[in-house]
Amino acid sequence: MLKELVREKLREAMAKLGVDAPKIEISVPDKPEFGDLSSNVAFTIKAALKSSPREAGQKLVEQLDKSAFEKVEVVGPGFINFFLKRESVLEVLSEVLLQRETYGKLALGSGKRAQVEWVSANPTGPLHIGHFRQAVLGDVISRLLQNAGYDLTREYYFNNAGQQMRRLGNSVKARYLEILELPAQFPEDGYQGEYIYEIAQMIRDKHGSSWQERDAVQFKEFAEAALFTEIKETLKRLFRLAENKVFDIYYNETWLYDEPDHKFVYVNNNQVLDSLRQADLAYDKEGAVWFKATAMGRPDDRVLVRSKGERDPTYRLPDIAYHVNKLMRGFDLVIDIFGADHLDTYQDVLAALRGLYERKKLPSSCNPEKIRVLIHQFVTLVSSGKPVKMSKRLANYITIDELIDELKSTVELDEAVKLYDSATQEAVKEDFAINVARYFILMRSPNSHVNFDLDLAKQQSKENPVYYIMYAYTRIAAIRDKYEPMSVATVNLDLLKEREELALLKKLDEFPSIVSDATEQLAPQFLTTYSYELARLVHDFYEKHRVISENQALTDARIQLLSAVQLVLKRCFELLELKAPERM
What we know:
Low-confidence stretches: none
CATH superfamily of the domain at 382-576: Isoleucyl-tRNA Synthetase, Domain 1
Strand content: 5-15%
Distance between the termini: 33 Å
CATH topology of the domain at 382-576: Isoleucyl-tRNA Synthetase, Domain 1
Mean pLDDT: 93
Number of helices: 19
Structural class: alpha/beta
Radius of gyration: 28 Å
C-alpha cells in the first residue's frame, strides 16, 4: 500500500513534467536514516528531462504532492528518499485487517494456466536428501502460483522406462535369489542398499520361492510399484497434503513410447524424432541417431537413440517429447525444477524445442519461451561442522523420512502439551520437525549450496530461526486467547506512536511486495527471510512495551496491531506450508 502510494504521487509529479516511466522501482532502504522508502526513478527519466539524475530528482520533488510525507529528499547521484507521516503508516493496519486472509493475494495469474513439474525422481529408490530441496522448492512455488491466481497443475514425471529400470529389476532379482540361498550374480552397476533387500524379502514373503524362474521384468514391476508407493507417502508427509492432492498428474514416461492414445500425449517419441529429422536437427551416425545440438548453439551433438533401435532412446528424446507435449497442452507458463546435475540436459532440451519452433514444426501457440527452468544446488547434511554419516538403508544417502524422524526424536514438548493424548503429542512433534526441515531448506537462494545444520535444527531456542518465528506467533496467540479484540472501527489507532509499533506496521506493508517478488522470481527464500524479520520486530516490541495495560484504549490498539501481525505470519506459514503451533 505504501509503495503504491509513493508510485501514485510520483506518477502525478511526472505527469506535471510531461514525462513517464513504464516501471517505477520502489525499495526499502537498508538504514532508517535513508527514509521509509526510496526510488531511483530519476535515473529513468533523466533523458526525457535532459537533466542529470539528481536534477531530474529535484524537478520531481518540486512537483510532488507531499501531503503523505514528513520529508522527501534527493540524495547522492539522484535517489529520492521518502519519510512517511505516521498517519500514512497507520492506514496499513486498517488495510490488513480489512483484507485479512486475502492480504498478499495476487492477480497476475488470473485466467492463466500454469504447470510445475518437479521431483520426478526415478522410481529406483526412496526419496533422499538429494531430492529434498527440489521437493520443498516445488511445493512452495506451486503454492505461490496458486496464490497468484493461476489454474495450476502439479506434475511428477514418472521415469519408468530405460536402463535404470532394467538395472532395478536385475538388482532385486539377484537379492531375491540370495535370500533363497540360490546362485545369484549381482549386477556390476546394480542398486546398493538395504531397501533392495527389503523389496526382495517382500517378494519372498508374498510368493515364497515360486519366483526364482521369473524374468527380471516382473521383479522390476514389483519393485517399481513398491518404491513409488513409498515415494508418494514421503511426499504426502513432507507436503502435508492428502494423497490425491500431492500431485495432480503422474506423467508416465512409457506413455511417450506408444502411439498417442492418451489424453496427455499429442505426439510420441518417434513422431518427435521424425520432426527433428524434418527440421534437419537429427542425423544417423555409427548406428545411432544424434541431435544436431551444435546447429542450435550447443557445444556438442547428443545421442537421441542408441544403436539398439528406436525403442531404446537416451533420456534426451523422451524429455524433448515430454516438453513438446507440455507446450501442446496449452499452458501459459511451464516451470521445471531441476538439480544442478541437469544443467546440460535441460539446455539441450530447450535448444531442440527452439529449433522445432523456429522451423515451424510446432504450432505457433507452442512458444518455448513459456518454459522457465529453475536450477538448484545441492544439500549437505552437517553436524559439528562435518557431513553426517550416510544411511545404511540407502548405502550412500539419507532419506527424507530419516531426516524428519531424526528431528522429531529430539522435540521436547511443553508441559501443557504433555497432558494431551499420545497421538496429539506425536502430531505436535511431527509438525515441528517438518516445519524445521522445510524452513532450513528454503532459507537460501536455490542457486546457493545448502549446508543443513542438524545441530541447529534440533535446538529449541531463539538460535533456531524456526523456533524463533514460531515463538513470536505463539506469544501473540496466547494474548489473543485471553483478550478478544474489539472492532477496528471502534479502536483509536492514533495511540500507536512508538518506534517499534510503526516498525511493525511498515513491515506488514511489505508483505504483498515480498509475495509478488517471491512469485515472479521463483524465490521462496524471500518469504523465509521476511518471516524471520517480522518475528524479530515482534520480539523487539515485546521486550520494550506491555500489550495489556491499565490504559484500555492503548491495549485495544495494540491488540489490533498484534492481530494483524498474527494474520500476516499465518499467511507466510500458509505459503511456506509451515504449521502454526498452538503452543511451543
